[in-house]
Design brief:
single chain, mainly alpha, 2 domains, Transmembrane protein, MamC
Length: about 160
């Protein structure tokens, strides 16, 4: 007679629920970061919504997939946790690499490592990272006239002549 060993299995429902939880956590974390960027004016609301949706989707897929893999391998306890972390990290990295375009640069450093020391590249990259400057308010012509008139009047009053 053979002894039956019970191996825990993860159902599709459990993997789906883990994916939903991962999507929720990833989306909330991205929403917090994107909200700050929207307030700072570095991204638009539409870009923030896109970032949140992308992050929630990739995190959810990575988490659900990792739970399914760990469960199908019959991992339990610490081995299960370690397996989920490893698989989810690799899956998230792969999904992010596929969905986020590679940044192109005007610098030849992107092509040749020897060109990294060019100061122009650093200046251009730094300029690209800065927030777009908001135009200053221009003083109106009336405001400039009032200031000039006030200054002239102050000078005449100070001299004692009217």
């Amino acid at each position: 007679m053979s002894k039956h060993v019970h191996r825990p299995t993860v159902t599709a429902g459990a993997a789906f629920n883990a994916g939903l939880l991962g999507a929720l956590v990833g989306g909330v974390a991205e929403a917090a970061g994107s909200a700050a960027q929207v307030r700072a004016g570095t991204i638009t609301r539409q870009q923030a919504v896109t970032n949140v949706a992308r992050e929630a989707g990739t995190t959810g897929l990575a988490t659900g997939g990792a739970v399914a893999v760990a469960g199908s391998l019959g991992l339990t306890g610490f081995a299960s946790l370690a397996g989920i972390i490893l698989v989810a990290t690799g899956a998230k990295y792969a999904l992010d690499s596929l969905l986020r375009p590679v940044k192109t640069s005007c610098c030849p450093a992107a092509v040749s490592p020897a060109a990294e020391e060019q100061p122009v590249c650093a200046a251009v990259d730094a300029a690209e990272k800065k927030t777009p400057a908001r135009p200053r308010r221009q003083s109106s012509a009336k405001g400039a006239e009032k200031k000039a008139t006030s200054a002239d009047n102050a000078g005449t009053h100070a001299a004692g002549t009217e």
